[in-house]
Design a protein that fits this description.
Pfam families: CRS1_YhbY. This is RNA-binding protein. By secondary structure, this protein is α+β, with helices and mostly antiparallel strands. The protein has a single domain, classed as YhbY-like (Translation Initiation Factor IF3), CATH 3.30.110. The chain contains 3 helices and 4 strands. Helix 2 (about 30-45) packs across helix 3. The chain is globular. The protein starts with a helix and ends in a 13-residue tail after the last strand.
Length: about 100
């Protein structure tokens, strides 16, 4: 699902007050973490993830693993925190602007 720039701005504003739901440890984005993130996205649709340490390439590899494994879209990233969004097709919770 491709999001428009106005939808991304809206989701960024919603994510501002969120606390990270998923915290990655030293092992990074494992299969178990991807599964738990998928469950969190089903419930919340918009989730903040705190990435483990490492350089920029390591963090980007973790984000790529999480987005591919869950089918989520990256909304925003600042430092070690990334915001991911995946629409719940059965019961959407967030009404997106056009």
């Amino acid at each position: 699902m491709a999001l428009s720039p106005s939808q991304i701005r809206y989701l960024r504003s919603l994510a501002h007050d969120l606390s990270p739901v998923v915290l990655l440890g030293n092992k990074g984005a494992s299969e178990a973490v991807v599964k738990e993130l998928g469950l969190a996205l089903e419930i919340h649709e918009l989730v903040k993830v705190k990435l483990s340490g490492g350089d920029k390439e390591d963090r980007q590899a973790q984000i790529d693993t999480l987005t591919r494994g869950t089918g989520a879209e990256q909304i925003h990233q600042i430092g070690h925190v990334v915001v991911l969004f995946r629409r719940n097709t059965d019961e959407p919770k967030i009404a997106l602007p056009r």
